[in-house]
Structure formats: structure tokens, C-alpha cells
Amino acid sequence: MRPLIELQNVTFGYGTTPVLQEIDLHLHPGQFMALVGPSGAGKTTLLKLMLGLIRPSAGNLTRQSALRLAYVPQLETVDWNFPVTAEQVVLMGRTKQSGWRPWPSRAERQHARDILEQLDVGNLAQRHIRDLSGGQQQRIFLARALIAEPELLVLDEPTTGVDMRSAEDIFHWLAHLSTERSRQGLNQAGMTIVLTTHDLNMAAAHAPWMVCLNQRIIAQGTPEEVLTEPILSEAYQGEMMVIRQNGVVFVQQKPHPHTYKELIPEPVVGGVPGHEQ
Amino acid sequence: MNLLLTPFQYEFFRNGTLAAVLVGALCGLIGVYIVLRGMSYIGHGLSHAIFGGAVIAFVMQWNFYIGAGLWGFLAALLINQTVRRTRINADAAIGVITTASFAIGVALISRYRRFTQSFDAALFGNILGVTQKDVLVIAAVTLLVVIVIILLYKQLLFTTFDSEVAQVYGISTGWVDTWFALLLAAAIIVSMQVLGVTMIAAALVIPAITARLLTDSFHRMILISTSLGALTGLVGMYLSFYVDVSSGATIVLVQAVLFGLALLWSSWRHRNGRLIHTHV
Questions:
Q1: Radius of gyration of chain B (CA)
Q2: Which strand (E) or helix (H) includes residue A189?
Q3: Are B168 and A154 within 8 A, CB to CB?
Q4: What is the bridge-based pairing of β-strands A216-221 and A5-14?
């Protein structure tokens, strides 16, 4: 199958400072890919290259023509004081497809409501975007992406600043989207998804393909293959502990040896004093 | 009633008032996008750049609207492209490009001293000199701006909210910015004679920021800002007639008073638990 996006030996830098070097990457239809790596590793830059917002300094980047794209930027880049409601933000995703009239049609508004309902935020349509929690805001921007019916959905740190439950919901949604159409027997690939995240465990639990990055691609493969102590130590320049249990991979920081024992109380043997059985 | 109708006996007042109301509404409308893009300084800068263009048009004996318009449009495009393609911020780009352009105008004026006086009108506004033809030009530009904003409403909204993301969603943000630069340049040129170069920036920013204090809705902000611009144009003209003060300055002072009242109201709402945030 022809890749949607193909990067061959791509290098990018701002001025003389290199941000990404010798990147070789193929993004195939239906692929769900998580880009992981430390801050400053070039994850957002790689997304912007894929989206065509910036051009490589060297190397080849080819993208299928007329590819329908949707992008969910980092929440911190959004102007939260801008005077728009959640519904208006969602409808921005249909700008290209809708007609010249300044106001949305009834069908377009209903479509936006339906998607917001699916993401459990249907009751927030008329709220100002600033008045929503981090998790709700992220769902609104995901709804804007979904209403565009993209072939490629790109998300930059979709779980940063949201609570654990919302983060899990978002990852479940994305995993569902990436498999939906193939599950429906439509003989089509699901939605292609690329995201960046700092939550290695969440990514490992939901994304079938992982790319570990720190200016260069250090490793790519399944979470099992990528989340190893040598690879993570090289990427994050520090010791990382990887725990494997029942086919699940967990990445954990090593606790400080001198505080670890002091913080954990000695187990109480024989019940709690004063509560004799 | 006589107090309201008396000034209309004079043709200069009829033309001037019509021009002030249209220019007020026009600046109020465009100002919404300027304020939300965080480019409040562009009105100030561009009006100065266009002044440079107007002087060049005079020296080259071109038509004022064509010379100044082309110059202003190119300056606005140059600012946009500098911001998009370099790491220079909007305020710095505006500062460099427009001040250089203004300096060209000042240099030419000092070289050809004979027309210094006629350019006082461009700097400080000259409502008495507004002719019916000027009113028609202002009306035509206002109509053009309204039509383009209606046709590009959704694209402008998305581009103003987040230009980079809008581009990913297939919006031709380059074209949207080009159209906007054209409209802004046209609006500033036709406002010059009514408000003067020095007052245009305020007329672009004050109604929009006042509207922002009063509402959290984009549609309402557009309506309020446009209406405030038109209303302050009318009230300013009356006050300027009776108090005998420059019309441009009076219009801007009326706008500033309304802004102060909106600020007080917004602070009162804030104390009562409802806050409308602004970022200008």
C-alpha cells in the first residue's frame, strides 16, 4: 500500500540549529502512530513537516496529493480569550466544505452537535471555550478535527493538561477511530492517526506503532520493541525502568534509593492497633 | 429638535456627517479583526505608511487614491509576509516598514515645501473639505468591505483564530491575508480625510476593544463595534460642530469616553462574578 506520507533522509533546522536529522519515516493508511521523546526532541517540528507547514532543509518529503488533514494543536497555543463558543470552534472544521453564507446551515449545526454528543460534550456547545475544563477543551478540538472527516488526523500532545480519565477517553476514541472502518467490513483502512505524547504508558496501551525520537529516530516499532531500557535511556538521557507484565509494558522512573524506604511505612502485622479482631 | 437639525442646513455638515458615520462603521468593522489578531498597532503604522504613499502620489502627479492605495496595500502585504516568513514580530515589522514609509513622505515634504499645508489635512483630518464625491468613494469602499467580509466570513474567522491550523484545514490563509490587507489599506485611505492619519489607529481599535469588553460572542462583537463606530461618528460630528473642535479628535474622544464606561461596566460585572477577558 502506498504511504500517505514518506520522509527520506529529512533534515530540518531553524537557522543553523538542527532540530531534526536524517529522518526516514513512512506513514501508511490506517496507521496509528505515537511519537515519543523528551521535550525539545523535535516531535512538534516533525508533525509540522508532515502537515506541510514547514519544509525540510534537506531530504525528500512526499505526501499524497489532496490529502484531507485535520490538526489538533497543543492546548497552550490556543487563544482562550477569543470570543467563540465550543460549537463555533467545531464548525471551523467545515469551513472549506461549507458555502459562502456567514452563518452555518441547520444541517451543519446538527452535524456539529452530533459529534459533540459522541464525545460526551453535547451540552457544552454554547459555552465560551475559556469556560471549559482541559479535558472538555481537548474534546472540542477533537470534534473540530472529526467534523472535517480527515484521512489523516494529527494531534500534538492531546493529553497534556487533561485529567487521567479524560486522557484515557481520548486515547480510546483515537484507537476506535483508527480501527472503525476496517471493523465495519468496509475493506478500508481506518483513519490514519499521528500524535505526540509524553505519556508513554498511555501510548503503549493504545497505539500499535511507536516512534522514539530525539532529533533522530532512535527506534520505531511496536511498543514492545520500542519501550526498552537501552532505547529510552538513549532518548531521555537518563535511567528508565521498564516493567513487563502479562503482555503490558509500563515505563517508570526509578525511585530515589534513600527516600524510597523511608516513605513507605513498614507493613502492619497482625492488624491495626486498637482494632482487634 | 432645532439643535439637531440646524447643522444639516450646511452642505459641509451633511457630507461630513455621512462620511464620519460610514468611516466610523467601517473602522469599527475592520477593527474587530485587527484587535483579535493582536495587531492593534497596524492602524497607526499603516496610516503613516499611506501618508508616505500619498506624498509620492502627489510628487509623481498620480491619482491620490491609486498612489496611496497601492502603497498602503504593498506595505500591509510586506508586513504580513515579514511576520509569516521571518521570526520578526508583528509590532516590530509594522514599526520598521511603516515608519520608513512615513519618513519618505516627510523627506519629500521637506524637499518640496510648497505643499506642506495641504498635507496638514491628511495628518489631522479635514471634515470641511469632504465633498459628495468623497462620500461616494467612502460608501463604495464600505460596501466592498462589507461584501468581502460576508463572503470570507468563515475563512476570516478561522484565520484570525489560528492562522496555522486554518491552513492545515485547507483555508488559503495567504489569500485571506491578502484580501484583508487590501480592505485595511482601502479603509485607511478613505478614513484619512475625515479622521486624519493621527486618529485612524484609535478609530480602528477603540470601538472593537469596547465591544470586546461588552460581549464574549464574535457575531455580537462585530455588530457592536460597527454600531459604536457609526454612532460615535454621528455624536462626534455634532459635538465638533457645537464645541468647535477638530472632528477627528472629537470622534476619537467620544469613543474613548464610551470605552471608559464599558471598562467600568466590565469591572462591575467582574466584581459580580462574570468576567469578560480581553487581551489587548
A1: 19
A2: none
A3: yes
A4: unpaired
- Number of CB pairs, chain A paired with chain B, less than 8 A apart: 73
Chain A stretch 52-111, residues whose beta carbon is closer than 8 A to a beta carbon of chain B: 52-53, 68-71, 73, 77-85, 88-89, 91-93, 95-96, 98, 100, 102
According to DSSP, the β-strands at A152-156 and A192-196 are parallel
User: Is the residue at A265 inside a domain?
Assistant: no
pLDDT of residue B186: 87
Hey, are the CB atoms on B154 and A102 less than 8 Å from each other? yes
Q: What is the pLDDT of residues B98-130, one digit of tens each?
A: 888 888 887 877 777 655 556 666 666 777 778
Phi, psi torsion values for B99, nearest 5 degrees: -70, -40
The domains located in chain B, with CATH, are: 2-271 (1.10.3470.10)
B154/A79 touch (CB, cutoff 8 Å), yes or no: no
In the beta sheet, which residues pair with residue A61? A7
- Written as one string, the DSSP assignment of A36-70 is E--TTSSHHHHHHHHHTSS--SEEEEEE-TT--EE
Give the residue numbers spanning the domain of A117.
27-54+66-223
The CATH number for A213's domain is 3.40.50.300
Single out the residue of A98, A195, A182, A203 nearest to residue A148, CA to CA: A98
The DSSP string of B197-257 is: HHHHHHHHHHHHHHHHHH-S-HHHHHHHHHHHHHHHHHHHHHHHHHHT--HHHHHHHHHHH
Q: What is the ipTM of this complex?
A: 0.86
CA pair distance A55, B96, nearest whole angstrom: 28
Tens of pLDDT, residues B197-225: 778 888 999 999 999 999 999 999 999 99
Q: Does A140 map to a domain?
A: yes
Could you give the number of structural domains in chain A? 1
